[in-house]
Amino acid sequence: MALVPRLTLLLVALCSLLAPCLAANHVFTNDFIVKIQGGDNELAHRVARRNGFINRGPVVGSADEFHFVHNAIPHARTKRSILHTRKLKADPQVHSAFQQLGFRRVKRGYKPLKVENLVPLQSIHSDRDPTDPYFDYQWYLKNTGQNGGKPRLDLNVEAAWAQGFTGRNVTTAIMDDGIDYMHPDLRHNYNARASWDFSSNDPYPYPRYTDDWFNSHGTRCAGEVSAARDNGVCGVGIAYDSLVAGIRMLDQPYMTDLIEANSMGHEPNLIHIYSASWGPTDDGKTVDGPRNATMKAIVRGVNEGRNGLGNIYVWASGDGGEDDDCNCDGYAASMWTISINSAINDGSNAHYDESCSSTLASTFSNGAKDPSTGVATTDLYGKCTKTHSGTSAAAPEAAGVFALALEANPNLTWRDIQHLTVLTSKRNSLFDAKHRYDWHMNGVGLEFNHLFGFGVLDAGAMVALARDWVTVPPRYHCQAGIYQTPRKISVNETIEIKIETDACAWSDTEVNYLEHVQAVITLNASRRGDVELFIVSPMDTKSMILSRRPNDDDSRDGFTKWPFMTTHTWAENPRGTWRLMARLNSETAEEGWIKEWTLMLHGTREEPYAHLPVKDPHSKLAIVKKAHQDKKI
C-alpha cells in the first residue's frame, strides 16, 4: 500500500506530459490555480483582492492551492493573460500561478430525445411489480420481450429487491448539467447537502433553461438511479430508496481542470458513487484524458473517500461507435474508474458503442426493433421520457446496481465493487452484431468480450455475493519491465516485443493475482489511426489495447507515455513473458515507431478469494478458485 503515493506521482506525471499535446488550439479561461506560501483561505482572499481577483476557495484536497477568478478576463480566449499571471507571480506570498486551459467535454447520447407529459396510473400491477406507470417500458429492469426484446435479458434487479435491498443510505452524485431536484419522482430522494453547482458556484444545481431542453441529460440519468417507487410518476429507479446528488459542472463553453477536480472531489464522505456520462469528443480522432488536478482528485477519492473505503467512479465508455476506441479516453480507460458499455434489448451492441479492453461490464440503452425505445426515466420540469439512450443511459444503471450492493454491504471498498462486477456479470445473450469480437476465456476461466467486458451486470447475484464478501487483500503496483529500443512498425506486418518478468517477486510490491494491467506506450506514426496494438499475457490471454480508428489522421503527436489498460487478464498469474504486438492496418504506405513500452502490473500478493465461501459450484467464483488451486498460483 505504500506504493500508492508513488503510483499517484507516476500518473500525475503522465498527465502533465500528455496535457500539452491534447489540444491543438488552446483556449484560456479566466480561472487560475494559485499556490499561496503557507496560506490559508483568509490569506488567499487578501491576495486575490489586492491583485484584482476573486478567491473561490481551496482546490479540493489541497491545503495551499486556491481557485482564483478574474471577471475582467473573458471566460474563453485564444491568448494567455500574461499580465495577470505576472502580477500574481510578483506577489510575495504567491508561490505559483497557472491560468486554466479550456477543453471540450461532451454528453454521451446519440441523438435528440423526445419528451412526454406525465401520465396517470394506467394499469393494475401484481404485488411483485412496481405500480409506476412507466415500469412496463423499463425493459432493462424486467425484460418480458416487450418491443422485440429477449425475455430475461435485463439487470435482474427484482432479485436484488426481493432480498430487501433498495439502495438505502447510499448517495450517487450525477456529475452533469444539473438535475431537476423539484421533480416529483426525485425530490424526496434528493441529497441537497451533497450537491453543488460548479458552473455558477452555488448550492443549487438546477439545469439552465434552453429551448431545445439540451440540459435534460443529468435529470434523465438521476431518475435511472433514484426515481421513487409506487408514486404514480414516471418509472422506478434501480435503487429507488437511495439518494441522488446533483453536481452541475458540464454546462459551459469550456471545461477546466479545476472544475473537473472539484466535482470529482466534492463531499467524498457524503457521496458514495460518482456517475459520469460524458468525456472527450467522440469523433474517433481525439486522444484525451484527465489533467493533473483531476487525476489527483480521482486518486484521492479512491484512497481516502468514503472514510477510507474509496469512492466509486462510474464512467460511460463512449458513443464513438466502431470508428473509435475507448482506450483513447483517459477517463474510461483509467483503472480508478469503472467503464460501462451498453447493449440493446435483443443482446446485440448498439451502433454507437465503442470497444476497448478497459471496459469492465455492460448495462442497457436502446430497443432493437424500435431504436426510439430507449430508457424510461425522469425528464425536466416534472415530465417523463421513454427515449433516454446511449452509454449516457448505461453508466447510471451501473451506479444504481452498485448502490444496491453498497446497501447489502456498506464495508465494500472501491476495489471490492470491481471484483464483484467481474465475478457476477453474465454473458447472458450478449453478442456483437457484426461478429468482430467473440467471447474468450482468460487463463483462470473468466469469460470476456472486447465490447461488453465481463458481461451484463446482475444485481441479484451481486448483492447476494456482497452479503458474504470478504474484503480483498492489499493492492500493489509492480513496474514489471521497460522496453526502450525503438522498433519500426510497418503496414500489415506484425512486430512483437517481449518483456520477461517475475512480477516483482520477493519484493514489497509482489503481484501474484492480477487486477489491471497497463501498457504505458510512447509511439508515433505517419497515420496514428492505422496503428493496432495487442498485449498477450503469460497465460496466453490476448487483449487488443488499441484498434484501428479510421478518422484519426494524426502524424505529429502520436502517444506519449499513454497508459493503455486491459481488464481481460483479471485474476491471472502475471509471472512470465508478456508480448506486445503492433501493426499498421492500412492500404497505403505508412510507417510508425514504438519508442518505449513500460509494463505496469496491479493486483494482490495473496489470493483475493481464499476466504469466500462457494455456494454455487458453477459460479465464476468457483471456477476462479479452482483455477488458482490447480495452477498453484
From TrEMBL:
Pfam family of the protein (one): S8_pro-domain
GO CC annotations on file: extracellular space; membrane; neuron projection
One GO MF term attached to the UniProt entry: serine-type endopeptidase activity
CDD domains membership: Peptidases_S8_Protein_convertases_Kexins_Furin-like (cd04059)
Biological process according to GO: larval behavior; peptide hormone processing
Predominant location: secreted
Catalytic reactions of this protein: Release of protein hormones and neuropeptides from their precursors, generally by hydrolysis of -Lys-Arg-|- bonds
Domain of life (superkingdom): Eukaryota
Family the entry assigns: Belongs to the peptidase S8 family. Furin subfamily.
Protein name: Neuroendocrine convertase 2
